Amino acid sequence: MGASTAKPSGATVILIVVGPAPGALSAPEIAREISAAGHDVEVILNSEARLFVGPSAFAGVGNTVEKPSLNPEVVIFAPAEAGVLARLAYGMDGFDFGDAPVFAVPDLDPETAKHPAVAGNIEALRRDGVRVVEGDGSGMASSHEISAVVLGNLGGPMAGMKVLVTAGGTRERIDSVRFIGNRSSGRMGVALARQASRLGADVTLVAANINSREPGVEWVPVESVEEMKGEVMGRVGDSDVLIMAAAVSDFTPAEVGEKKIRRGGSDRMTLELVSTSDILGAVRSRNENLFVIGFAATHGDPVPDAREKLRKKGADIIVGNDISQAGIGFDSEENEVCVVGRDGVEFIPRASKDEVARSILDASLMEMDKLDKEKR
């Protein structure tokens, strides 16, 4: 089934072919994530797939069609059960999309996945250039994993850039069981890594004490400020952009107990603290051409603190947010920030952290463009 209408300039159409398997329930979320990245989505529902999900599930995120209205930029078969994989492997699927990249997302139970014929079909697809997105062996890959792989292969305004992101909250040991920490969930930094990947960047995330992992990015777990500094300094030389979104501890215990400190007979305990390393300062002093985005969390108007930090740290952009406001900041799903650059302030109103992250990156791309023009 080919497409007869040419794709207009600037339009990017992603076609999702939904097969008859339980993973069809995830297809609307795949469409939603791809649509949110700025692409047009069309959906072909296999007749048996309608037993799992109907056209109304794609309302607002994709158009359900019998055949594509335009030549698709990418074709995704999700879910692809054993029959679909076989037809794709033997060229019997009835589709002809020219040179459009094809992604196949198997939805198989463990026994079927081990069958020699099924494994052979998957290998044949890979040899033919089909990108096979597999899960952890217990079913289809998550919608998040699928969209991350697909979007990461589409290119975008950050294609070719290497972006290093820090996220989460560092922990400084007091003894073998206790630590000094903060309430950062890492959601803002993870959202920035996710959106940079969707814009085509090669992303590495240095994650301080974050349990869940973000598909499509290199994940580097750390705990303390010194561990984060070591990873950042070891990787930043190969990076084009550094986004310091982590909540980094300002102080660490002067001495760390090797065992659990006992309460003893006193009702008080004195803990001596010393300053931690200034990661952002160390980075800037050794990497003058690196584009640096820092963060300043404050109580009250964040702009003065952000401007001061911009000057002191030599960053290109400081993102300020007022953590005293309910519903934004630490451990929340939304944020509201001010992006402070050399030439002014851009206010980004309250929205999901994914939306705020995209706005921060858009502002950063504009600032990078200004810098490039100044150097010419």
CATH fold descriptor of the largest domain: Rossmann fold
The rounded Rg comes to: 24 Å
pLDDT below 50 for ≥5 consecutive residues: which ranges?
Answer: 1-10
Strand content: 15-25%
What's the CATH class label of the largest domain? Alpha Beta
Instruction: Estimate the helix proportion, in percent.
Output: 25-40%
Mean pLDDT equals 89
> By CATH's scheme, which homologous superfamily of the largest domain applies?
CoaB-like
Give the topology string: H per helix, E per strand.
EHEEEHEHHEHEEEHEEHEEEHEHEEEH
What is the domain tally?
A: 2
Strand order of the largest sheet: 11-10-7-12-15-16-17-18
- How does CATH name the architecture of the largest domain? 3-Layer(aba) Sandwich
Q: In one word, what is the shape?
A: globular
**CA-CA gap between termini:** 49 Å
Number of DSSP strand runs: 18
Largest β-sheet summary: 8 strands, mixed
The count of helical stretches stands at 10
Structural class based on helices, strands and sheet pairing: alpha/beta
Report on the architecture of this protein:
By secondary structure, the chain is of the alpha/beta class. It folds into 2 domains: 13-152, Rossmann fold (3-Layer(aba) Sandwich); 162-375, Rossmann fold. Helix content is 29%, strand content 24%. The protein has 10 helices and 18 strands. It has an 8-stranded mixed sheet, with helices on both faces. A 6-stranded parallel sheet has the order 3-2-1-4-5-6, with helices on both faces. It has a two-stranded antiparallel ribbon with strand order 8-9. Strand 17 and strand 18 form a beta hairpin. The radius of gyration is 24 Å and the shape is globular.
